[in-house]
Amino acid sequence: MNWLRNFMRERYGPDQLSIGLIVAGVVIGFIMGHLPILNWFAWIIQSVFIALAIFRMLSRDIISRQSENAWAMRTWYRIRDGFREGRDKRAQSKTFKFFKCPACRNVLRVPRGKGSIRITCPKCGEKFTKNC
Ligand SMILES: [Zn+2]
Predict the structure, then answer these.
(1) pTM of the prediction?
(2) Spatial contact of 44 and 38, defined as CB atoms under 8 Å apart
(3) pLDDT beneath 70: ranges in the chain
(4) What's the gap between Cα 109 and its chain centre?
(5) Could you say which of 6, 47, 58, 103 has the lowest number of CB atoms within 10 Å?
(6) Are 26 and 36 within one domain?
C-alpha cells in the first residue's frame, strides 16, 4: 500500500461530498438500472457522479475541494433541517398554528382555538393580529 500512500500525497483524498457522490451514484444506478426505461441514463449519471468523486479525491487543489465540501454540507443540513421543520410542524399542527411575522419573516407558533389574538414577535417586537 506504499505506492498508494505516495500517490495520494498532497492530494485531497475522500471527504463527505465524494463519498456522498459515490453512494448517490450507486443508489441511482441501482434503482434506475432496474427500470425498463432510461437505464442508459442511469449509467451516465452513475458514471458522472463516480468520475466527479474520483476527480475530487485525486485533486491537488485542496482549498477549492474544501470549499465545495463545505458548501455541500451546508446544503445537506439545510435540506435535512427543512424536512425536520416540516415534520415537527405537521406533528404540532393540531395544537398550534404557525404564522410568519410580517416584518422579519420569523416563524411564530401560537396555540389553536384562542380566537382573534394580538401577537408580538419575540424577535423584532412587531405586533399583529391573527385569528387562530
Ligand atoms: Zn418579527
Answers:
(1) 0.63
(2) no
(3) none
(4) 24
(5) 6
(6) yes
